[in-house]
Amino acid sequence: MIRFPVSFVAAVLTTGSAPAEPIRPPLVVYAAGSTTGVLQAMIDRYSERTGQRVTLHTGPAGLMRERIEAGDKVDLFVSANMDHPRRLQAEGLAGPVALFARNSLCVSALPTVGLTQANLLDRLLDPRVRIGTSTPGADPGGDYAHKFFERADAIRPGSTATLKAKAQAVVGSRIEEPAAAPTGSAADAMIRRNIDTSVGYCSSRVTTPDTSVAKVRVPAALAVPIRYGMTVVSTSKDGRRMGAAKRLASYLRGAEAQALMASFGFSRVQ
């Protein structure tokens, strides 16, 4: 069982129930790109209920963390792993870290690959099948993909080296502006990036499934636990802003917000 720091729980409980005047300018949230859809939906509901405006910026969590370390003015950070927010806490830039969501690893493939859960490893090892991942280090999605590759050796010795050699980091190396985000189907994106398969999250930024590709959950024997961490950033040194960020954090972990998780492919924590 995951235990949350008493200080964090106390903070969100004491600040989450009392009405407060909205903070101006808007709260700023930096978050992992994979949370774009679900977080925006949560924030929209929160703003409607409280009047508190919130600006959401998303991108590879490692790069978002680096921006905070470089001095960006941020109130709340949501990462696709627990490590990046814990690092900010260790550096004195953020408070205690709490679990925000869980996710799973999936492989998406063009229809021509014929991917199923039973043949997933065989297809990825096929020399003709090109593999895409996110960028390790910059984006936890890439780190999770490589951990999955490392587990493959237990089932098929020698697989790890083959998979890592084949994998191309095709996304996650920089923070994209919203207007620059590619449009079209998942299959269009894979063809554009010269890959046949993509190892990434089972979650989605939208609630409507993309049927242009096959999306297969990684078998349990190869699965990698994926946990998203959240922390209030303390660089503003402004007690009112930090209090407002704690109230938002409390809402994001509450039942109303967490009820939105499943429709975007995440697992709720409440």
Question: Helical amount among residues, as a percent range?
Answer: 25-40%
The CATH class of the largest domain turns out to be Alpha Beta
Task: Report the CATH superfamily of the largest domain.
Answer: Periplasmic binding protein-like II
Proportion of strand residues: 15-25%
Mean pLDDT: 92
The domain count comes to 2
Radius of gyration: 19 Å
Oligomer: single chain
What is the strand arrangement across the widest sheet? 2-1-3-10-4
Order of helices and strands: HEHEHEHEEHEHHEHEEEHH
Number of strands: 10
Shape: elongated
Please give the alpha-carbon distance between the first and last residues. 13 Å
Poorly predicted parts: 1-18
User: How would a crystallographer describe the biggest sheet?
Assistant: 5 strands, mixed
In CATH, the architecture of the largest domain is 3-Layer(aba) Sandwich
CATH fold label of the largest domain? D-Maltodextrin-Binding Protein, domain 2
Structural class: alpha/beta
Note the total helix count: 10
Structure description:
The protein is an alpha/beta fold. The protein folds into two domains: 6-102 and 227-264, Periplasmic binding protein-like II (D-Maltodextrin-Binding Protein, domain 2), CATH 3.40.190; 105-222, D-Maltodextrin-Binding Protein, domain 2, CATH 3.40.190. Helices cover 35% and strands 19% of the residues. The protein has ten helices and ten strands. It has helices at 6-16, 36-50, 61-69, 83-90, 120-125, 140-152, 159-166, 186-192, 239-252, 255-258; strands at 27-32, 54-59, 76-79, 98-103, 105-109, 131-134, 167-171, 197-201, 214-217, 226-232. The strands form two sheets. Strands 2-1-3-10-4 form a five-stranded mixed beta sheet, sandwiched between helices. Helix 2 (36-50) links the parallel strand 1 (27-32) and strand 2 (54-59). Helix 1 (6-16) packs across helix 9. The radius of gyration is 19 Å and the shape is elongated.
